[in-house]
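Q: I have two molecules that I believe assemble together. Could you output structure tokens for the complex as a whole instead of separate predictions?
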Amino acid sequence: MNQTADLSVFDIIGPRMIGPSSSHTAGAARLAQVAGKIAGPDITEVVFTLYGSFSHTSQGHGSDRALVAGILGMGPDDERLRNSFSIARQQGLRFSFEVSDEETPNANTVRIRTMNRAGRSCSVTGVSVGGGAILITEINGVAVELAGEYPTVILEYMDKPGIIAAVSTALAQERINIAFMRVFRHGKGRKAFMVIETDQLLPPGLTDHIKSVDRDIAQVLLIQEEVQS
Amino acid sequence: MIIRFTSGKELLACCEGRGAIWEVMLLRECQKSGRTRQEIFDEMAESLEIMKRGVERGLKGGLRSMGGLVGDSARKAWLHSEAEPLCGRSMFRAVAASMAVVELNACMGRIVAAPTAGASGILPGTLLTTAQEQGWPDERVVEGLFTAGAIGFLIARNATVAGADGGCQAETGSAAAMAAAALVEMAGGTPRQALHAAATALKNVMGLVCDPVAGLVESPCVKRNALGAANAMVSADLALAGVESIIPFDEVVDAMRRVGAKLPSELRETALGGIATTPTGREIAARLQKTPEP
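A: Yes, here they are, computed for all two components at once.
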């Protein structure tokens, strides 16, 4: 918890979570949940590579079960989390773990590589930064920064002039205010990601709306907490 | 007017003319989030329900933790609380209920971090058992959670609530301070008395290290939650009796920050010191080490 100046009462009395550790269990579940949303539906196989303290203490803190639970779409407070291995087997999801002694800048780092039914692969790297909070640092080889604390739009597109203006116009038409916006790219004119964190919940139609503004937008993902009933 | 406070002193100023700490914290959250008072109160009431279920489940016992070191001590303590415990029934029930929640946490049960998972027993354990003994309604317990939230916010902002940064004093010490302040307001004490209770609780465990056996949130965490519950109850009653903390809350928080920064990393959650490295502690760690380190 670094941004302590503006903490909510629910950052102190919370999060609601499955134990035993906010960083190693709740953070792990959240990382895999966001990675699963980025990878999209119909994941058939996942490989987790654990770095730093994740690699030493993953079993004792249930990080391994939490990671599998997250890929299955479970949140950090889902009671089924502890049975995630058997649920994954029932659903035909293959999962495995690798431990790496490679140095990483952050203690609790995991790389999550998935394969879906159509044979499409996806790689997401993230860090559990403490208190259940996370930071996604890489998507498919592109370095990004994404905390998942706000409703977030992620766009994958070919870098070219005018895309940012077109996308922000689309958001304005939907009356969605941009809180934070960043672009990340492999290089000029190559694959790029736009990460837009917003103040409003994202309507399901937003994906099609944004895709329609430019044909060089390959993918639009909406990452947000499921609306609580 | 915008509610803004960054210290205990400013919090007391906010309470002037507005009432209790919990009122001020609730108002602050309304302004911060743009949500209604009722929505925020209801969300906290939902967390209280999770806490209640946690106490009930943990007290039943028969649980198995990830490392197998805990899972049945809260049940034993609860049984003993029926049989005239030396420190009194109310006190020992609070102790048992606090152990129940953190034991459930160790067994991959559902809890509410307060302020952390490793210290998650103290707040529900003390507030729920005391409310039951005193016949207080649930609304008053929810109010107490907002009081506790204000104290936790100040400690997190001005020091730390993470064991990895400040040792166990920052985790179970902060939880005890939060619970003590909440108990004072629930019992009809003033905001000033609540801050005295929080300061006393933090002082009582100043310097307490974080030294988990095998790096697991099990031993000594469950018993440190037991002590944290007792600490909260004693500190609350002292404040209600009119015994003030000689050192003001804000200065105690800063002292805790300074002590935490001086703790070597071996005594901050790394399992490289304290009881984690006793012969028995090492033996347990070796037994649990299933995969050899690369």
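A: One point stands out. The radius of gyration of chain A is 18 Å.
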